[in-house]
Design a protein that fits this description.
This protein has 495 residues and is α+β, with helices and mostly antiparallel strands. It is built from 17 helices and 16 strands.
Length: 495
């Protein structure tokens, strides 16, 4: 289910991505802020699984609260939670039900990332996972461990529907060429991180013009020097020039004259990305770049997408292979949300390259761990067994939330899942038809790395919060408030 979030700048987000919701809400309570920081770490580490972490922390804290009300001391709960946490981490390592062996195979990669997208964009997972898999496979270098998530770009273009989304090999810039040259192959590229225009004098002077020749010859020297710079570029073999900021009409005229494709980029980040994509060094003064500073592109081509002028840079070098997913949609909110789902899926690809093991999704893994920990609690002496049992019960929150969001009766679903969990760790709830089924067979899989990080961070943050017995807030020291008391006289007379 989606949430509508309005942040402190009145910006609207419609999303079910927990990381975005936490990032955009103003969290003031110190304990809640610790959970928000744990979610941020999960996002940095795996790019996904934040929802699992936040739901689980919330439920563990609720269970701890009920134990404290029963009369258990927090130290007993801490011991129980620590024991149960170790048991949970040991259990998850044994629950692998599939290992991704060949991530260059499109079908295998699609089945691995599909459930990540389904949790954010339910109904579009088949289509989007195919597009992301195509982009990821194109951007994978020879040594797969060197895969860089930055080599897959997302470009959002309003108009059309989500099914008009396409994958382009190369980097796409939503700018057309300033000149009439529309495509260049095997091109040398010069990237300038400065305005491309004639040099202006730094001082102001008065010039007396006596006749028409004086007027015509006034700027001739500067124009000749500027033409000399562009001619030198053409002689060095540069066929594409990328500049930031303004590009004067005279510059466009000379680029046209020497048959050079000129592109104006307004964003310095985009300029850096293009420079990286073509292997060029951005130059800050208008001089002819050396051979090392120049970039190279196999193909630079103009393309029109939804009445927007775009330029595609393609370079087929192994370390620079880039793919761009051009997302299409009718509203900015839906495009932003789809982009977040794509980013999560690309992070999952990175996690799978690091560790290809996968566990059953659909709440199967969580419920199995929960039921095993509840059995483990029975073997524990002392009061901490209550805490261990509650730790196990907390894991129910994942399948419970899944079934409630799918409009099903949670108690019936949980009863069926507990029955299956007695013998197997792969039975989960399929939200599309409401059946409890073998998640591994239905290809509902989650990366083991993402799950184990979420549980690890979740246990850490829970134990940290439980160890706190007092919150001491530092408030601004009492003294004259400068803003309100500026007009007051030192003797206290308000007059």
């Amino acid at each position: 289910m989606n949430k509508m979030v309005i942040n402190h700048l009145e910006k609207l987000f419609v999303t079910s991505d927990a990381a975005t919701i936490i990032k955009e809400t103003d969290v003031h309570h110190p304990a809640a802020r610790m959970i928000a920081q744990a979610a941020k770490m999960q996002e940095n580490e795996c790019g996904d699984g934040t929802n699992l972490l936040i739901s689980l922390v919330g439920e563990l804290m609720t269970q701890a609260d009920s134990l404290i009300k029963m009369g258990l001391h927090p130290s007993e709960i801490l011991i129980g939670y620590e024991k149960a946490g170790k048991e949970a981490m040991a259990l998850i390592e044994k629950l692998t039900c599939f290992t991704a062996s060949n991530l260059r195979d499109e079908d295998e990669l699609v089945s691995c990332i599909k459930s990540t997208i389904a949790s954010k964009q339910f109904g579009l997972e088949d289509f989007l996972s195919k597009k992301i898999a195509q982009a990821a496979i194109h951007a994978m270098p020879e040594r797969i461990s060197n895969f860089n998530v930055d080599n897959i770009r997302v470009q959002k273009i309003l108009g059309g529907g989500i099914y008009d989304t396409e994958v382009v090999h190369g980097i796409v810039v939503v700018r057309g060429s300033e000149t009439t040259i529309r495509s260049v192959e095997k091109a040398k590229v010069a990237v300038f991180n400065t305005n491309i225009e004639m040099q202006q004098g730094e001082t102001k002077g008065t010039v007396l013009l006596k006749n028409a020749e004086d007027l015509l010859g006034y700027t001739q020297g500067e124009e000749d020097a500027f033409e000399g710079f562009i001619k030198a570029l053409a002689e060095a073999g540069v066929q594409v020039v990328v500049g930031s900021g303004s590009m004067s009409e005279l510059a466009v005229h000379f680029f046209e004259k020497y048959g050079i494709m000129a592109i104006k980029i307004m964003s310095k980040w985009e300029l850096k990305r293009i420079a990286r994509a073509v292997g060029a060094t951005p130059i800050v003064k208008l001089t002819t770049p050396s051979a090392e500073e120049m970039g190279y592109a196999d193909d630079v081509r103009f393309k029109e997408i939804s009445s927007r002028w775009c330029t595609v840079f393609r370079r087929d070098e192994d370390e620079n292979k880039m793919a761009t997913i051009i997302l299409r949609g009718s509203t900015v909110a839906s495009l932003d949300d789809t982009e977040r789902a794509v980013d999560n899926a690309i992070s999952t690809v990175k996690a799978l390259i690091r560790d290809g093991r996968m566990v059953a999704g659909a709440g199967a893994t969580e419920l199995y761990i929960g039921s095993e920990i509840q059995k483990f609690a029975k073997t524990q002496p002392g009061l901490d067994q209550y805490a261990v049992e509650k730790f196990g019960t907390a894991f129910e929150i994942i399948p419970r939330t899944l079934s409630e969001n799918a409009g099903l009766k949670a108690e019936i679903v949980l009863a069926k899942m507990y029955k299956e969990a007695a013998t197997s760790s792969v039975f989960g709830i399929d939200c599309s038809d409401g059946e409890v089924k073998d998640a591994a067979e239905a290809k509902i899989l989650d990366a083991l790395d993402t799950k184990s990080w979420a549980i690890k961070l979740c246990i850490d943050v829970c134990l940290t919060i439980l160890k706190v017995d007092q919150i001491i807030m530092s408030k601004p020291a009492g003294g004259p408030n400068i803003n309100n008391q500026a007009a007051r006289r030192p003797d206290g007379y308000d007059g």
